[in-house]
Amino acid sequence: MQYMRSTMMQTPLLISRILQHGATVHGDSEVVTWAGADGRHTSYAEVGRQAARLAHALHDDLGVTGDERVGTLMWNNAEHLIAYLAVPSMGAVLHTLNLRLFPEQLIYIANHAEDRVVIVDSTLIPLLAGVLPHLTTIRHIVVVGDGDASKLSKDGVEVHRWDALLDGKPDTYDWPAVDEHDAAALCYTSGTTGNPKGVAYSHRSIYLHSMEVCMAESFGLGPKVRDLCIVPMFHAMAWGLPYAAMMSGASLIMPDRFLQAAPLAQMIATEKPTFAGAVPTIFTDLLAYLDANPTDTSSLKEVVIGGSACPPALMHAYSERHGIEVIHAWGMTEMSPLGSVAREPSGVDGAEAWAYRYTQGRLPAGVEGRIVGPTGEVMPNDGTAVGELQVRGPWITAQYIGEDGPDPDKFEDGWLRTGDVGTLSPNGYLTLTDRAKDVIKSGGEWISSVDLENALMAHPAVLEACVVGVPDDKWGERPLATIVLREGASADAGTLRDFLADKVARWQLPERWSFIEAVPKTSVGKFDKKRVRADYADGGLEVVQING
Amino acid sequence: MQYMRSTMMQTPLLISRILQHGATVHGDSEVVTWAGADGRHTSYAEVGRQAARLAHALHDDLGVTGDERVGTLMWNNAEHLIAYLAVPSMGAVLHTLNLRLFPEQLIYIANHAEDRVVIVDSTLIPLLAGVLPHLTTIRHIVVVGDGDASKLSKDGVEVHRWDALLDGKPDTYDWPAVDEHDAAALCYTSGTTGNPKGVAYSHRSIYLHSMEVCMAESFGLGPKVRDLCIVPMFHAMAWGLPYAAMMSGASLIMPDRFLQAAPLAQMIATEKPTFAGAVPTIFTDLLAYLDANPTDTSSLKEVVIGGSACPPALMHAYSERHGIEVIHAWGMTEMSPLGSVAREPSGVDGAEAWAYRYTQGRLPAGVEGRIVGPTGEVMPNDGTAVGELQVRGPWITAQYIGEDGPDPDKFEDGWLRTGDVGTLSPNGYLTLTDRAKDVIKSGGEWISSVDLENALMAHPAVLEACVVGVPDDKWGERPLATIVLREGASADAGTLRDFLADKVARWQLPERWSFIEAVPKTSVGKFDKKRVRADYADGGLEVVQING
Ligand SMILES: Nc1ncnc2c1ncn2[C@@H]1O[C@H](COP(=O)(O)OP(=O)(O)OP(=O)(O)O)[C@@H](O)[C@H]1O
Ligand SMILES: Nc1ncnc2c1ncn2[C@@H]1O[C@H](COP(=O)(O)OP(=O)(O)OP(=O)(O)O)[C@@H](O)[C@H]1O
Ligand SMILES: [Mg+2]
Ligand SMILES: [Mg+2]
């Protein structure tokens, strides 16, 4: 017998398969787009037909024939889902443009990716019009909705209307058999320093990641799930939820541009999601709203919070006051983005289970992790050794787009350097103490800004607490606690410092306190610590000093 | 910008990753091997160490260096799990030998696969000794357990003891980076006609299939699941449950050779599985036992029944009398084996939900199906058009081992011809009426033997009913109903025929009835219809004739 190869079909893992499966087997599942007062319902069967029409339009009318990039400047809505499916399935590359980036960054990424087409929600025409003069590769703009598009005129750029373009196109498409390693979609990280960096997901990585999202220990998506997809589709592929939903038949409830707590609460009461996902700040606002405005949230069993550390107090508040279980998760744009999900292991309950649920979560088989110390040594996964987390696996990027190879600052020996600092336990749970760049280095010791924040956010008067390191003559760096109080609540620095006293080591207690209106946020709703540090440096913060 | 490739890591999908993940992150999960009175517990961390030792022993002592085949002649137990993981991870190929095959078939498959090593449970030494003189490629036998091995002597064959071989070997192994498309494991179908035919699963197909098994809509394996793995590891990879368990941290309860209802009930009461899977006959026996012998089955929430059509009456009996939900599933050795799982869609309940649960199940994204009519035309998925089911996907075989290419009787244009006849509904549910070779052709019309069986098995006096087509002068073929009555129950042919009268069309009612002690079973516990037809032809059945 000759060398033994498998007899299995070498079926490539393609987004067109996810599309075809979702549009047929799960044709009755639906995407609901919130329209302000109620939801617009579209079945997955219809999504499939529209995706075919869009692909025909892009190919036949706009000349998209190869791996050209098709950008989207869109909220979470049915048309964005259709673009998510159609563009990669036809062999082109989807580029989700983060509409909250600074204009320079938006211009940079659209030019860097050489986007040839942009699909834009008509509510975002002003934004696109503002950057359009600087976009050098755009030839076509497709406007969804019927707002005034006259501001979008530019030589060499044709403006189309989505409805007109799709009208009369065939509702099937002969999706090509692309290579599973080909690029399917691009996403750029927000670029807290320097220019944003992009990654190119493959059909394979998206397919595998979608399966992961549907695994029971991960998000467990399936036909009975109704996912309120708050996390934006322009950021880290909305955590892969749109693709996983089409793969598994979960229905999607899309908030479009209605991301404030009041409309989110109304969506929950009306559209009855069973599941939702977003960053902590969204759920902090929503909690305050739900506490003040009784809302029927009985359908909602589980919400995933990730993107930043989820304060334990927030988890308890949802569980105890609203019967909603918060599942903490960690990921990165560079990881498609799912890294870990914090479900407690078998055989534990009570406080022990909560301790596991506070962590960033457990790594799945598809994500291999290791902790690396400051001098490059691999440290034990003993739950104690602190270092930088490195990861590798089939849905993790090996480099950034357009770079010659892996940048050694970001990659090492085939591993991605996450820039996140923490521990790995023997049973695979990740606990992050900080981002490497946010760790507070006080007299040779490290203080975890996340620990201080979590402790502070457990105080009933505190809505948000953001802790950053600021220069200190004696210790090098010391923590500055910036505090947003809840509406109507009051607490002074001394009270909060006393509250912390039995929760963190004495030498970690902040001396500098600042009460602010709101924590500045990044383009994806995370605490913008760079801004906070800059505000402090510029003297823009009123600081109370307490010494212990 | 040049042609856009993805930036993702091209991490191969390997069994060594499943092993390493299970042995570390899920090191506290366990495999329990039933030993007659109680269970022997081994942690996944220990499984990982033993797998490394086994790989060293095979490599260093037995000279397994490439893709040589390592056969297993074993029950479901911890050592079999260790072989499942170690052999493919080291780059060799696992071949699970079906210990219930006829000796000629066993000899045929071991020689056809060119097995070089066989690992054998000491309780199976007599079986191996019987065929050993005819096994032409075996050089090493590894005996697990301490039975007398003196019968295994043969020139050119060395006999080793598992414990001695593994003793002192390192408990880590530098698993090679094999190609994900390489063969990982072989399985031969039982070969109802002619010689058995083998398929070679790849690392990739097993990895993807394992993810599928963990998806919520499939079997939903995860760390809190305790799987009573009744379905034999020598048949269709035990439905992929061992690999999926290591991937997800589900614990495994292995019955070893104790497959009768009484010990299975004891395992349930003692080891508290939450989940189990087996063919209908096993669950039919177990039901009779549980009805007669009150047993604590409270841990068991869900059991999957597949491999043959599951009678609806069996599903209701478990649900109503024991609070255990039966999930019907369909698959084939050629499909790794998972094809479809019958969970009802969203938004239905009561009788409508049950109707979905009676079907063979819903196809997942990884299994594409179509119905093909007798003249080769593709028929609509309308739930009505009956034809042969064809499937394709990344864990489905493209041909049989050792054949030059796909046999046109079994494969067509990249699709596997399943030999199963039925319908596909628009929302992806498969309903099988029969195997092509079991369909009863009566005067130009088809009668489904499965429908008749299901209707008969709903009668309280009937334990098992097996219906086959037999020659008939007037109609070409007519159904023969062979009936096994429950202990102590009585019913005659007239009663049963009357019972059927309002359940199937009048012209389908069988005229020929035979009351038998037991339905003959195949090597994997399915009704052996070939045997039943042969028994009838030979005059070996006592037949009552009733005309309507
Ligand atoms: N559950 C979590 N707990 C703590 N930090 C988290 C969590 N989830 C995500 N993060 C942080 O978010 C990072 C990934 O975020 P993302 O890819 O969305 O962009 P970003 O890193 O915030 O932006 P940029 O890379 O442009 O600076 C992680 O590296 C980690 O620092
Ligand atoms: N839920 C089910 N309902 C009806 N039939 C089923 C079901 N599950 C499996 N089968 C039957 O079992 C077949 C696959 O079985 P398997 O691969 O275990 O070996 P086999 O086909 O029985 O044996 P051989 O191929 O050697 O004849 C399917 O093709 C189908 O006919
Ligand atoms: Mg980042
Ligand atoms: Mg078969």
TrEMBL record, chains A, B:
Any one Pfam family match given in the protein's UniProt record, by short name: AMP-binding_C
Superkingdom of source: Bacteria
InterPro entries, A to Z: AMP-bd_C, AMP-bd_C_sf, AMP-binding_CS, AMP-dep_synth/lig_dom, ANL_N_sf, ATP-dep_AMP-bd_enzyme
Single annotated GO MF: ligase activity
Domain AMP-dependent synthetase/ligase: 20-400
Domain AMP-binding enzyme C-terminal span(s) in chain numbering: 452-526
Keywords: Ligase
Protein name: Long-chain fatty acid--CoA ligase
Lineage of origin: Bacteria, Bacillati, Actinomycetota, Actinomycetes, Micromonosporales
